[in-house]
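User: Just a sanity check before I run the rest of the batch. Below are the structure tokens for the first item. I only need the designed sequence back.
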């Protein structure tokens, strides 16, 4: 991954294990009648069990709040008010190109409490002999940043556990696609403790998603890397991705069907065996999850090819679907490379304009001007130019002077 692109230096990994006290403080925000002795015991077991697992990761991460390094996101969430600006720094990336097949290499994400931010990414082609471009200083893009909980502890009292066993489970917490300000309010009002989150970045062209382990400060590997062909991936627009992410974040599906839906969403279609291999589950579980998505009309089954096909339009409102259709028609009309070419040509024109100077006086040219000289020189030339004689025949224009004729 390219380095030194005007960004903060990569910090060293912490020498000691990440303190768990911040996560214990988050649990203490739960209402006392919910987080009783039974819930506290289960929380400590869940926390320490998770802390013993070090998931497969592709890089380390570091958090800053208003320019100051902090231990973890949990340390930020326990504060009374969220910081004005946050930054996620990604460092020590694994050099194996294959692990980055479905994750965009990134230097850092900088965003405010409402989710307006910017991201610096790198050019990377895993199919190339040299997938990393050592001269790439990174590309900065504006983005909207949202968070969603992926794996959390939800406080539950002994009474709620009993009611659940009797078929009367309590209503789930109001999970959503959060800004950091909303996420802070959510965990402080419910006592939900996130162990793992997803960071969603919506740019003008697509959505970037990163799954982060909060107890170990790690960027996790995408399960498709090395198990699914990159050629079969379908990149959706930010609008459609936001609709899917919003639905998945609310927790309306069990964990496995949720994961299967996300895999299916960015593909042309998956078989039962595809899902079983990617997620390392049995074919029976894979089939049950896929069929549940068909039952909810998130997917369709092609009996001829034995492939489950996604139906991404269901995640859009009618107005969003109409805008998406118009945008797609415009993209097809332009062709796949037209937008990239237009942006590249505009960048070159802007660069030429910024460097252009008048060939007579050397002064700056007027931006957007099509003249060869600056405005002052053009005015002087027009003032000193001789008056052109009137042609003798109204239907015949005056002849051009012969540049090769000798002077008289």
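Assistant: Here's the designed sequence for the first item:
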């Amino acid at each position: 991954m390219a380095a030194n692109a005007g960004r903060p230096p990569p910090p060293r990994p912490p020498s000691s294990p990440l303190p768990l006290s911040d996560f214990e403080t988050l649990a203490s925000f739960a209402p006392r009648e919910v987080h009783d002795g039974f819930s506290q015991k289960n929380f400590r077991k869940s926390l320490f069990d998770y802390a013993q697992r070090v998931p497969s990761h592709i890089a380390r991460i570091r958090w800053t709040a208003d320019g100051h390094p902090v231990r973890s996101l949990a340390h930020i969430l326990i504060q009374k008010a969220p910081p004005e600006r946050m930054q996620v720094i990604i460092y020590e990336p694994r050099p194996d190109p294959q692990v980055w097949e479905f994750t965009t290499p990134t230097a850092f994400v900088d965003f405010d409490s409402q989710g307006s931010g910017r991201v610096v990414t790198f050019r990377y082609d895993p199919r190339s002999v040299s997938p990393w471009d050592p001269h790439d200083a990174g590309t900065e893009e504006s983005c909207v940043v949202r968070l969603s909980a992926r794996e959390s502890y939800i406080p539950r009292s002994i009474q709620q556990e009993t009611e659940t066993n009797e078929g009367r489970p309590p209503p789930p917490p109001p999970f959503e696609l959060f800004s950091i300000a909303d996420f802070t309010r959510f965990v402080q009002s419910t006592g939900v403790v996130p162990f793992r989150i997803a960071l969603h970045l919506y740019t003008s062209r697509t959505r970037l998603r990163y799954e982060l382990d909060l107890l170990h400060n790690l960027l996790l590997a995408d399960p498709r890397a090395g198990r699914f062909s990159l050629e079969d991936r379908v990149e959706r627009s930010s609008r459609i991705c936001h609709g899917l992410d919003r639905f998945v974040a609310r927790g309306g599906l069990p964990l496995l069907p949720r994961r299967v839906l996300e895999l299916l969403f960015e593909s042309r279609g998956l078989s039962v065996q595809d899902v079983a291999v990617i997620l390392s589950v049995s074919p029976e579980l894979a089939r049950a999850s896929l069929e549940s998505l068909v039952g909810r009309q998130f997917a369709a089954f092609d009996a001829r090819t034995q492939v489950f096909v996604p139906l991404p339009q269901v995640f859009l409102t009618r107005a969003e679907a109409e805008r998406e259709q118009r945008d797609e028609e415009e993209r097809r009309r332009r062709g796949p490379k037209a937008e990239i070419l237009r942006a590249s040509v505009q960048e070159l024109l802007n660069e030429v304009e910024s460097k252009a100077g008048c060939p007579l006086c050397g002064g700056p040219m007027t931006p957007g001007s099509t003249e060869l000289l600056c405005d002052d020189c053009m005015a002087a030339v027009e003032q000193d130019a001789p008056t052109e004689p009137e042609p003798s025949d109204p239907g015949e224009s005056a002849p051009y002077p012969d540049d090769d004729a000798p002077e008289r």
